[in-house]
Amino acid sequence: MTNPELRKHLASRYACKEAMEWLGDRDSQQMWAECPRPDWLLWYVNPHVSRQELVLAVCDCAETALINVPAGEDRPRLAIETARSWAIGEADMGSVKKAASEAYAASYGVTLAAHAAGAAYAAARTAYASANASRSLADAVTTAACAPDDTDSYFAPVSKSARAANAKMCRLIRQRWPVCPEAK
Question: Which domain holds residue 156?
Answer without folding.
Answer: 52-166
